[in-house]
Amino acid sequence: MYNPETISKEKEEFKHAVLNARPFKPLYVKLKVFYGCNLKCEMCNHWRETREPPVSADRFKEIISELAKMGTQKIHISGGEPMLRPQIPEFVEHASALNIKVTMTTNGTLVTKEKAKRLVEGGLRGVNISIDSPIRKMHEKIRGVEGAFKATIKAVELFRRYKHKGKLTIRINTVVSRTNYQTLDTLPGLAHELGADGINLIPVDDHCGEILSMRKKDIALFNEEIGPRIAERALALGLIVSDEDAFPFGRSESEVRLGRAGRYAFGYYDKHPCYAPWTHSLIDFNGNVYVCCMTREKIPPIGNIAKQSFKEIWEGAAYRQIRLKMHPPALAPCRRCDDFIEQNKELWETIGPY
């Protein structure tokens, strides 16, 4: 999300902004630059639907320039599959030239030697690559395209090859579902073998339906057998920072109950605010602006960069209304989110309860 130490240096200004529902700084912004995807993942709708054309590359570059002036420190590029847009290296180079850290999530299948080299040399500082099982057949069953595993593994190897040309961090994203959870105990070994710096276990979203969602018995088996193996190996290899990272559906009885319902915040936002509306934003492929991924398409957009500057949206009345609603209990989609909890806990301690 952002580094809480940045805010601690401007503690009083940030606290004043929170208490008065005023804007602070968009320190971290996600750009969903493309809706479609070249794979057919069972847990995703991006390949099943056709949407309007994305915002032009020139407009996205204008927005990146505007964000730099407003104090943005990090941009994360995603999709759909962002590499379906040929201008991704241009976005990375442009943002990096403005001293913005750039990271990206990709399925890796469209990454070539030339693209990997240019992205790293252009300033890409982090890449999350999706691997849904260390077993090829399982990964391709989930991803829906034969040959996807080999292409993704190749992408990790290419980024590792050029890693020395920049300060690149490579992480493996894995969506944990009923389909694949029993195959994941060797995931840390594969990640280490590929030279990755970390793994992210992501609980399957509740919009995926009953076929993919984890049942009580699935979570119990994962927590008793698979999770502990992942935790032990991943900690030993430095791929996670805490054994909690290996248990995306919670560990206690109350957490598991909430996790089964898709409430991965485990009740945190029933009593605490999320500070994302003061520090974070998401700009969708069509220009719509949301607070974050969880509010995307769950609540109306706050504005659209095709019609307004980002500054107008960030400082506008609609964003203020969202900030007013973030004092607990927060927005309903927040209950499903585990993205920013650790940072929010640090900020809660930094600025103090209010």
List the helices and strands and how they pair.
Blueprint: H1 4-8, H2 11-19, E1 28-32, H3 57-69, E2 74-78, H4 88-97, E3 101-106, H5 113-122, E4 124-130, H6 136-143, H7 148-162, E5 169-176, H8 187-194, E6 198-203, H9 216-236, H10 253-260, H11 276-279, E7 280-283, E8 288-290, E9 303-304, H12 310-314, H13 317-325, H14 341-351
What's the count of strands? 9
* Strand portion: 5-15%
Which residues form runs of ≥5 with pLDDT under 50?
Answer: none
Q: Which value, in Å, is the CA radius of gyration? A: 20 Å
Distance between the termini: 22 Å
Report the biggest beta sheet as strand number plus sense, adding barrel if it closes. 9 strands, mixed
Query: What's the tally of helices?
Result: 14
Mean pLDDT: 93
Specify the helix fraction band.
Answer: 25-40%
Order of helices and strands: HHEHEHEHEHHEHEHHHEEEHHH
Structural class: alpha/beta
Sheet with most strands: strand arrangement: 6-5-4-3-2-1-7-8-9
The outline comes out as: globular
Describe this structure in words.
The structure is a single chain. This protein is of the alpha/beta class and 354 residues long. The protein is 38% helix and 13% strand. The chain has 14 helices and nine strands. The chain has a nine-stranded mixed sheet. α4 (88-97) runs parallel beside α5 and α5 (113-122) crosses α7 (148-162). The longest helix is centred in the middle third of the chain and has 21 residues, at 216-236.
